Amino acid sequence: MTHSAISAGSPFPSLLVKDLDGASVDLSTISDDADWKMVVVYRGKHCPLCTKYLNLLETFKEKIMANGVEIVAVSADSKAQLEMHLADLEISFPIYYGLTVEQMKALGLYISNPRSEKETDHLFAEPGLFVINEKGQVQVIDISNGPLARPEIGILAGGLEFIKAPENDYPIRGTYS
């Protein structure tokens, strides 16, 4: 098996997913309320670690958004699965559904088969996190092949504050090829 990840500094691709109203949303578009965007890809409703991570992310939302970074989350779940998942989520940031296998591959995410029909009924992405800067470039990437390895949110929130401080003039890292 080969794996290729999206490159640091490359443009974040235009990826259309659905919101709870069924409207298409482009993950690459940054809202008018922010100049950067954090896209959190989670495994889906079946993953209790994802639920815990998204709920923890909510506790850092104000700190992250105070630095001009909007937060969104997305999975390959269906609308029905997302609606059921909302009962366990305590989040106020946008959450989307319908990430396709082709979109997962475009982001360089690891993709898994469900272990059984009790887990879920579709292929799903393993966790990924992308921070898009004001130029639409991928500033920060974290991709995991399983639910146990994810960025520590407190460190991430503080790191984004440091990166965005103009006096630090912090470049995109990991671009040497």
TrEMBL record:
Domain annotation Thioredoxin: ranges: 6-168
Organism of origin: Psychromonas arctica
InterPro entries in alphabetical order: AhpC/TSA, Thioredoxin-like_sf, Thioredoxin_domain
Gene3D superfamilies: Glutaredoxin
Regions crossing the membrane: none
Lineage: Bacteria, Pseudomonadati, Pseudomonadota, Gammaproteobacteria, Alteromonadales
Domain of life according to the entry: Bacteria
Name of this chain's protein: Peroxiredoxin-like family protein
